[in-house]
Amino acid sequence: DLWHAGLVASRWTWNERPAPDEVVSARIRHKGAMSHCRVGPSDTPEIRFTEPVWAVAPGQAVVVYRGDTVLGGGWIQKAIEGEA
User: Fold this and answer.
1) pTM, entire model
2) Residues 63, 73: contact at Cβ < 8 Å?
C-alpha cells in the first residue's frame, strides 16, 4: 500500500513555524501536488495529511507552504502508514 497518512522529517530549516492546529500545504516531490496537512510541534515534527498522499519515500525533500509562502523544509525519514 503506497498511500500514506503522514511523514516524519528531519534536518528542518524554518522561515516560520506554522501554528500547531494550522492547516498548511506540503509538497513532497519537485512539481508534486500540494497536500493539505498539519505540522507537529517537535524538533522532528510529524506531518499529518488531511487526505492520504501517494508514495511518500525516505530521502525525498518536503517543503511546507502557507499559500505561496515557503515556511520551511526538511528531509523525509519515514512515511506514516494508514488513513489520513
Assistant:
1) 0.92
2) yes
